[in-house]
Specification:
The structure is a single chain. By secondary structure, this protein is an alpha+beta fold. It folds into 2 domains: 35 residues; 166 residues, Beta Barrel (Thrombin, subunit H). Helix content is 25%, strand content 37%. It has 4 helices and 13 strands. The termini are far apart.
């Protein structure tokens, strides 16, 4: 004690040793805390991503709704308004002919039937039924789901459906044979419906074959359906107005 109290050298040596020890303890403690907070950090990042997605195409200065983006084309023609709502996947199937997901968002969150569902990788499916706090989704791996897609390189549109086999692939059977296709060409939503905005990734051309006047295309899906746990529900705020006009035609 006498040496320590009267020797600045010994005091400095002790403090340096103590700082190294406590610093190491704090580092370990901080790493453990960060690990156990990964879930909350990830949830907050997903929510922020949903907010950014909603803001991405705000071009109408008169619209201030923080959950909405207004989509216009290059000629400034009005295309649509959409919201993105982050959700957790509570259940999911991939091995059946008709597969479903359940999400932890519902009517209380503004979710309605016929909303699109996407993830960071691409298209997931379409909302089928809604309760107060939950909803069920027809997966893209469902024989009842058909979505309008386009070839990114040429904008030729077709309809993508799943043949009930591999969860990795879907099919397009209505693109004319004169359209030049190569493996690796990217495919995305066409925007030619009332559910999905355009340019959401769907997959890429795996292989093609021509039968008659039609290209039959196998599409490698961009979404890994067996590992989905975070998604976004995309709501077209003009859905009812558009659907009413379509129903009038029918």
């Amino acid at each position: 004690m006498l040496v320590f109290n009267n020797s600045p050298f010994h005091q400095a040596s002790y403090l340096n040793s103590a700082n190294r020890f406590t610093g190491g303890i704090y580092t370990i403690s901080n790493n453990i805390n960060q690990y156990f907070h990964l879930r909350s950090v990830n949830d907050s990042l997903v929510a922020e991503n949903a907010r950014l997605q909603s803001h991405f195409y705000i071009l109408d200065s008169n619209k201030n709704d923080i959950d909405t983006f207004v989509l216009k084309d290059t000629a400034e023609h009005y295309v649509g308004r959409y919201t993105y709502t982050a959700a957790d996947v509570l259940s999911n199937s991939t091995a059946n002919r008709n597969n479903y997901l359940m999400l932890n968002v519902g009517a209380a969150d503004g979710i309605t039937k016929q909303c699109g569902v996407v993830c960071n990788e691409g298209v997931v499916g379409i909302v089928y039924d809604v309760s107060e706090h939950f909803c069920t989704v027809l997966s893209l791996l469902n024989s009842n789901v058909h979505i309008s897609v386009k070839m990114d390189s040429s904008n030729h549109a077709g309809t993508l459906a799943w043949n009930g086999k591999s969860a990795l692939f879907a099919q397009i059977d209505d693109i004319n044979k004169h359209v030049k296709l190569e493996a690796g060409q990217r495919i995305s939503t066409s925007g030619l419906n009332t559910i999905f905005p355009r340019n959401i990734p769907v997959g890429e051309v795996q292989e093609t074959r021509i039968e008659g006047n039609t290209n039959h295309i196998t599409v490698k899906l961009s979404t890994s359906f067996e590992t989905i746990y975070k998604v976004y529900v995309v709501k077209n705020l003009d859905f009812d107005e558009q659907q009413k006009l379509l129903n009038n035609i029918k």
